[in-house]
Design a protein that fits this description.
Methyltransferase required for the conversion of demethylmenaquinol (DMKH2) to menaquinol (MKH2). Pathway: Quinol/quinone metabolism; menaquinone biosynthesis; menaquinol from 1,4-dihydroxy-2-naphthoate: step 2/2. The chain contains 10 helices and 7 strands. The protein is of the alpha/beta class and about 250 residues long. It has one domain (about 10-245): Rossmann fold, CATH 3.40.50.150. Helix 7 (about 155-180) runs antiparallel to helix 8 (about 180-195).
């Protein structure tokens, strides 16, 4: 069990943590987000703008709730997660979806395969998030879309004060009552607190080669929705590949 979000995460331990909470994960998230989780999911799907016939990769897909929402557009969705327990629960709930077990920092796909790649609330759980962003760049087709939905930092001091109070007092109590594994949610809360802000994540995304990088805040900055494109111009892509070879730091 992982109890500290030290940003040098051991994938096997984090995966095991998610195995433990797979069955009740979506229900607990809806409660802990005070009902905002479905709204964040709707905003993410709109940002992806999936179209029939497209192939879309949903990373850290968990039980497939977000993947199923994307698939309603008629797009073909591949749901990837590193937790066998999450995948098993996802296959039970969504038997028509394609689930793949894999590491986001070493995606089991070829270059230029997907029209869009998305990850929701999973990037901060990856041991090397910058490497994962580089892999997302690699598997996207030229011109392909990246959408990252992740917890961030409220921009309003009053909102930050209320959010800090909820994280320190309200969320632990609710997690204890609603979750089968409160320790897992303690880890998640710590990972949120230590995660960089909107501008730092945008810099990471730009640093691995993406263009048209932008973000907008949801719920006052509690969550940030990041969007970007893989450049179409081969010269720009070659420059990005050279930048990715020594791993970016920030």
């Amino acid at each position: 069990m992982v109890n500290k979000a030290d940003m040098e995460k051991k994938p096997d331990e984090v995966s095991g943590m998610f195995d433990d909470v797979a069955r009740g994960y979506d229900r607990t998230n809806d409660i802990l987000s005070l009902g905002n989780a479905p709204l964040w999911r709707i905003a993410t799907v709109r940002a992806i703008a999936p179209e029939p016939g497209e192939r879309i990769l949903d990373i850290a897909a968990g039980t497939g709730t977000s993947s199923a929402s994307i698939a309603r557009s008629g797009a073909t969705v591949v749901a990837l997660d590193f937790s066998p327990g999450m995948i098993a629960e996802g296959r039970r709930r969504h038997p028509k979806l394609e689930f793949v077990e894999g590491d986001a920092a070493r995606l089991p796909f070829g270059d230029d395969e997907f029209d869009a790649v998305t990850i929701s609330f999973g990037l901060r759980n990856i041991a090397d998030p910058i490497a994962a962003l580089g892999e997302m760049y690699r598997v996207l087709k030229p011109g392909g879309r990246l959408v990252v939905c992740e917890f961030s930092h409220p921009t309003n001091p009053l909102m930050q004060f209320g959010y800090d109070g909820w994280m320190k007092l309200g969320m632990p109590l609710v997690a204890k009552l609603a979750s089968s594994n409160p320790d897992a949610y303690r880890y998640l809360m710590e990972s949120i607190e230590r995660w960089p802000d909107q501008h730092a994540l945008a810099k990471w995304i730009r640093g691995v080669g993406f263009s048209r990088v932008a973000h907008r805040n949801l719920t006052g900055g509690v969550v940030a929705l990041h969007r970007a494109r893989k450049p179409v111009d081969p010269a720009v892509r070659a420059s990005a590949a050279r930048r990715r070879s020594p791993r970016a730091t920030d």
